[in-house]
C-alpha cells in the first residue's frame, strides 16, 4: 500500500511556511456573461486573448466574449480598459516600473535619509525620484481604493492555496514613497510630506487584507519609516493644528483595524488546520486494492484531523503564551516543540534518502510522510508532526516579527496621543 500526498498539497506547504514566489501581476477580464477572469495576458490577437492564471494554467478567450480588460500590463496591448476597484492592480503596475534599489550603497543612503532627513545636496536621489514619478502615480491610484486582492479573483479551494503578496517589493515601494516625503520636507512642503507618510498606512491596511502570516508580519517593515517621520514631526513645532488633526484621524481607523499578536497566531493556527483538511481530502487512495487497506486509510484520514487539532492546539497555544508574556522560558518551550517536529521530519527524509541510495530522485525529493506499518492513529501523529515542521515559521523569525509588531503597536498609539495634543 502506498498513500502519497497530492502534488498540490506539497506546493501548499511552502506557502504555509512563509515561502512563496511573487504572485504574477494580473489583468481583470470581465466577460459579457457576467463572469470575471484574473490573470496575466501572455498574448492576444484581433480575435482572442490568452491569459495565464496562477496554478490553473492558460485559458484562451474569444474576443467577442470579453466586455472589458482592466489593468493592462504591457505597452502595446489594444484591449479595452476601464478603472478597476482592486488596489493590487495599481500596486502591480507600480512594481513593474520600480527600479529601486540599484545597489547596497543606495539602500544604506536612503535608509539614513529616512531616519535623519534629507541632506543638502543629493542630485542622484532627486533624479531617482523623477524616474519614479509614474510609480508614485500608480501607487496614488491604489491608495484611493478600499479593496485589495492580491489573488486577482482566482479560485482557490483552501486559504492555503492563496499566493503570498510580494512583500519585499512592496517594502521597496514604500521606501520610495518615504524618500519622496523626505524630499518634500526639505522643500518645506510639509503637508504633502505628511500625506505621503500617511498613505503608507493605507497600503499597510491593504496588505493586512491578505490572510497569510508572512504578509501580515511584514507590515511592520512598512510601518517603521512612518513611525520615525511622524514622531519627529509631532515632537517639533513645525506642524499646524490641522496637520496634527489629520495624523490623529488617520491613525484612529488604522489602530482600530490592526490585528493583535494573538490574532496573527490564531490566523496561522486556522491556516494549518485548513492545510490538514485539504490534505485529508487529497490523499491518493486510488491504488488501494483491498478492504483492509481502504479501512486503514479511512481511519488514518480521520486521525489526521483528530491529531492535527490536538497538536496544533498545543503548539499554537505555546506560541500565543510566548507572544503574550515575552518570557525567555516560554519562547524556549516553543523552540523545543518545533525542534521535536523537525526531528520527526528529518528522520523521514533521512530514511527516504537511505532507501534511495543517496541518489537524487523524485521519491527522495517528495518523501512519503506516512508510516503505513503503524496503527492509523500512530501514523497520523507522526504525519501531523512532520506537517507542523514544514508549516511552522522559524522561531527566531517569528519572535522578531511578533516583537516588532508589538513595539509598533505601542509606538503608533503614542503617536496618536501626541497628535491629539497641542503643538509643543
Please, could you describe this protein's structure?
The protein is an alpha+beta fold. It contains 16 helices and five strands. It has a five-stranded antiparallel beta sheet with strand order 4-3-2-1-5, with no helix packed on it. Helix 3 packs across helix 6 and helix 7 packs antiparallel against helix 9. It is globular, with a radius of gyration of 25 Å. 37% of the residues are buried. About 12% of the residues have low confidence.
For the sheet with most strands, the description reads: 5 strands, antiparallel
Structural class: alpha+beta
Element order: H for helix, E for strand: HEEEEEHHHHHHHHHHHHHHH
Q: What is the oligomer described by this structure?
A: single chain
Helix content: 55-70%
Note poorly predicted spans.
4-25, 72-83, 352-367
Task: Return Rg in Å.
Answer: 25 Å
Count of alpha/pi helices: 16
End-to-end separation in angstroms reads: 75 Å
**Strands of the largest sheet, in order across it?**
4-3-2-1-5
Describe how the helices and strands are arranged.
Layout: H1 7-16, E1 27-31, E2 36-44, E3 48-53, E4 57-62, E5 66-70, H2 87-97, H3 104-116, H4 123-131, H5 133-143, H6 167-186, H7 190-208, H8 213-217, H9 219-234, H10 241-257, H11 261-282, H12 291-325, H13 328-355, H14 362-365, H15 376-391, H16 395-420
Antiparallel strand pairs: 1-2, 1-5, 2-3, 3-4
Helix pairs in contact: 1-11, 2-5, 3-6, 6-7, 6-9, 7-9, 7-10, 9-16, 10-16, 11-12, 12-13, 12-15, 13-15
